[in-house]
What we know:
Distance between the termini: 14 Å
Bound molecules: ligand STX
Low-confidence stretches: none
Radius of gyration: 18 Å
Number of domains: 2
Strand order of the largest sheet: 1-2-4-3-5-6-7-8
Amino acid sequence: MYPAIHPYTSEYLDVGDGHELYLEQSGVPGGLPVLFLHGGPGGGCDPIHRRFFDPERYRIILFDQRGAGKSRPHATLEQNTTQHLIEDIERIRQHLNIERWLIFGGSWGSTLALAYAQTYPERVTELILRGVFLCREQDIRWFYQTGASRVFPDYWQDFVSPIPTEERHDLMAAYHQRLFGDDEIARMRAAEAWSKWEGRTSSLHPNPDYVEHFTQPRMALALARIECHYFTHHAFLEPDQLLKNAHLLADIPGTIVHGRYDMVCPIDQAYALQQAWPEAVLQVVSDAGHAITEPGISKALILATDRYAGGQHSA
Length: 315
Ligand code: STX
């Protein structure tokens, strides 16, 4: 990865509806603009996310989506839908005086990148997607009801533990009740179990630091509440929307990087997307799971950002 850098500017952008988004820029002000879209939804940005781009060639833009990270108010679901996020991205683009930009997103960030690019295709120079998440019924079911449960029965036991047996036939609904209930202790317990499940299943090899990061109370609460809210509403997408509209991406070059053993977002989603969007190249990383920090995944992503910047950096 590129060296750790600091933003040359950061600010809060008022997007209306009572939301203020944390927005920062790093790299080189006159460089190729790239927008980083974080996962979850609700995962927020991290300084490590700047390190996927050559800071001498890219103008690197990170922001925390509504309710996530440092955006305010924290973990709120008011006026917080996919359509709001798409319009926030447009507002950021206009605010920064950017005509067209590279969009880079993993997991939920790939969902949002696709939804944005299909709404405003003329604004997108290229797409780089990692751990593609189409957010269809079966994709959500796989991770939160049955599927990944069969690969990680031990972690699954911990995930279902806050929910009584008689409610486990619909874990999304049962979790929603706890995450949005009045009982603060139950809320925190549910948030921690929810986020721990995701942290534990994200990497091919166990990664305690990763799990610890996503189970910090503040992070866990935003991630669990925002994810559960979005997934309860099928991410505010029509059935199969992102595949049906893939033809809108026909003029956009794309790179899709996906780990063969991704247990959060199984690779058949990337495969289906590439078939519907032949201009994109699918790079299967044979020894990786879901996380952006998986060595083979970071490597493939950086190769892609270098390529779109005109080749490998020589310095
Ligand atoms: N969530 C998919 C997603 O976007 C179901 C995602 N997966 N892991 C993450 O996000 C974190 C990085 C936030 C843990």
